[in-house]
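Response to reviewer comment R2.3. The reviewers asked that we include at least one raw input/output pair. We reproduce the pair for Methyltransferase here without editing.
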Amino acid sequence: MLRKNVRVRKEMKWRVMDMTHMQLDDESFDAVVDKGGLDALMEPGHGPKLGNQYLSEVKRVLKVGGKFICLTLGESHVLALLLPKFRYGWKMSIHAIPQKTSNGSSLQTLMVIAEKDNSAMLCPISSSMLQSFVDSNGSQAMGVSNALDTENDIRSKHSSYSDIIYTLEDLKIGANGKLEELSPGRRVQLTLGELVASSVYRAVLLDAPQDSGPFIYDFGAFLVPKTRAREWLFSSEEGQWLIVENSKAARLVMIFLDISHASLSMDEIQKDLSPLVKQLAQGGVGDGVKIPFLAASDGIKERSIVHQVASTLTGPIIVDDVIYEKVDDDISTLIPSEDVMFRRLTFERSECLVQSEAVLTSGGEDAGPKDQKKTSSGKRGNPKKSISPASPTQENNLKVDHNYLASSYHTAIISGFMLISVYLGKIAATGSMVKTSVIGLGAGLLPMFLHRCLPFLDIEVLELDPVVLDLARDHFGFIEDKYLKVHITDGIKHIEEAAKMGATLSESCESSNGGLTSGSLDILIVDVDSSDSSSGISCPAPDFLEDSFLLAAKNSLSEHGLFIINLVSRSQDLKDGVFSRLKTVFGQLFSLQLDEDVNEVVFAIKSETCLKEDDFSEACNELAKLLTVEKASMSQRIIGYASKVKNLS
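Raw output as returned:
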């Protein structure tokens, strides 16, 4: 062929090279014409690797406005690579080429054209299929049509997203501006690694906002473990910018690990990622330069799984014993020990959020499995599966200690009783009981502590999942009695029914207790996690913030009743929205923001009588008198929290 054309076509050059590793400059060609080359590289048995490498080279050598003209038989495995490969920054079309009837292949040749556009727009693939192609190649035409429909559906969905997911290859050729230059405020989602490779990573590239220096790092990588990937801090744009600010990096690439990386050590992951993330560094990074890898730690020193079960309502649930690398000052003050062990209850659907946490000591309640009679009302549910490995706590005779509250937000909830402590004192003095409802049992730690430290409370716990009740009994020493009962029911419906009953009773009669109806609640606590923490609010579930429930909650309360919500969110805007809703329903609103924690406990009082902060000191003293706590330090901690409550009204 060279000899045949060398004199006639003097400007035509003939080169011999590996088409998957072309020795050609970037953006040096206006067109690449492929006559069956891609099909040959992707013959059955070869896999997609060579075809993928070849198409990457094609994308690299084409100029902006250049075209890749690919003649192919359009088999399903070829189109499955070809169409997505040119998804971002390319305009594509597909055409059936007329051909004479022959006794050869039954497949008709197609021409796929991809024009380099470098736009962030996602364009659908246009097609001009001849009717003769459809009529004479029914099976082939159907396969091509299905491939087009699938790809165009993906493009249509992605085009409506605020975030386009690029490949590293797309970014390197300028699909979202010049990668070698910082673009303040730029945020780009991408995948690292080829889809045909064993390890693919989801990532977000963030260039620090304007005037946000000084920086410690020009460029850095931040690894997010699977257990924390759904946290608002890492999954939301607002949270990601906070990570950039705290990392002191001019450009940060956040990399999200998933189950496919579970078998790899951190060193192996960094070794795998290093050559990929170096390509994202502004101005490039030399081979000998190390990329600083930062990581979100879980802070656990030791961990052993005590029990695993899958609930039909809550999903997988884990009970584990852990020793933290660092213990909160509050706990270290209460329990002076180097290695305090905690027992935790975690719902896998919100694995980043520990549902309940108890201190284990040698003098607590039995934390091992129990053969206890179940007395709760409601229908029982069956777990899908249950695994109970041997626990070190059984060997060391450690037990859940209900004299302590390991979760600071539980302490904060009780501190808010200060707001109605005078009212509580009057009821306790008469020997009457304070009607209290807690929505969400968890491990039962808060109800058990309330039952001990404020024995005049008549507590009902509303829990939707019977499996959670079993875990609380078997692994956290939870025990019911006359004044502490669990009802397996929908908490929202239960409160709505209580509100209706209270309204009916108030119309017909008044009780002897200052006009309060017998069905009125004095305290209502909502401590329920959300199954979708990506919304930005991990607690409570969205239904508990709807106006209909808030009104029902108010109507279920007595005249001096107290409504408490455990609010977990890192977004101040979202929290302000919750405060605004509560203010439209309740007369007075208070909150306690926990130091170095995302929890904020919100208190709402039904009474319109204004409680001033000047009265807090006296109210705290009244609460201190009511507490019957075995450890004086625990009582001091509760009152200390109470003094930090702020008026939001």
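The two ends are 87 Å apart (CA to CA). The first helix runs from residue 2 to 5. Further pairs are available on request from the corresponding author.
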